[in-house]
Amino acid sequence: MRTIDLSPLYRSFIGFDRLASTLDSASQNSEQTTYPPYNIELLGEDKYLISMAIAGFSKDDVTIEVVENTLVVAGKMKTGSDAAEADDKQTQQRKFLHKGISERSFERKFQLSDHVNVTGAALEHGLLNISLEREIPEEKKPRQIEIGGRLLENKH
Question: Is the pTM of this model over 0.70?
Answer without folding.
Answer: no
